Amino acid sequence: xxxxxxxxxxxxxxxxxxxxxxxxxxxxxxxxxxxxxxxxxxxxxxxxxxxxxxxxxxxxxxxxxxxxxxxxxxxxxxxxxxxxxxxxxxxxxxxxxxxxxxxxxxxxxxxxxxxxxxxxxxxxxxxxxxxxxxxxxxxxxxxxxxxxxxxxxxxxxxxxxxxxxxxxxxxxxxxxxxxxxxxxxxxxxxxxxxxxxxxxxxxxx
Amino acid sequence: xxxxxxxxxxxxxxxxxxxxxxxxxxxxxxxxxxxxxxxxxxxxxxxxxxxxxxxxxxxxxxxxxxxxxxxxxxxxxxx
Lengths: 205, 79
Fold this sequence. Notes:
The complex is a heterodimer. Chain A has helices at residues 17-23, 30-38, 41-62, 120-126, 144-157, and strands spanning 2-3, 9-14, 72-74, 77-82, 85-94, 97-103, 110-114, 168-173, 177-182, 188-196, 199-204. Chain A is 29% helix and 32% strand. Chain B has a single domain, classed as Non-ribosomal Peptide Synthetase Peptidyl Carrier Protein, Chain A.
């Protein structure tokens, strides 16, 4: 997936951990190296893959050295500064998949998830009775709970109010787009999604 | 905590969701090996809410818990 609509940049890619470890000095900022070393082993893969894809994207768009950019967090949301400008970021991981999104002007939210069989309890939790209107077309039943989660998670990540995922409801759904409502604030998010064999992804548009 | 929700029951549920041999789970197991994505965490919480009426006391603290025991201790009965 690679889209470049308006000023939101979104990329998703499969990455290999071994290669990332060998090349980390070339793309991590000094502040990020300190943070990376402090992480438990099992969390390092996600950290490196997210940073790598981000830096690669920034290099392509801004023509800056990857290690010059440092991603920080404010209120649990990632951001970076470049040439005096503040950029909202969103990073998603799932197994070997990683997706990133950033924008100077608007809040961003992105999610990617590998599909696997989920429990009935999870299906009931994420696809509520309120959402049973939806005609799911060609979406495989196995993918449904993962897709609903991914769409709502993308909305949640880009929502400044950021409550819990059960406060979001899908009010309309077409082939590639969904509308998601925050039940507390009544704010509506327009989400684009994709659904391929074994992986689904969604982002705010 | 509900009377029937024990750390052993928690292991059984984790074994079911992530297809793990529960003999491999100790109280010190780092659950990040299994709960790698937010959706995995969401599924654990959905199953525990449904079967045992418990939920995390604090989501942010819950996400930073390292061991199975710490995660277990972060659950509280739903009021």
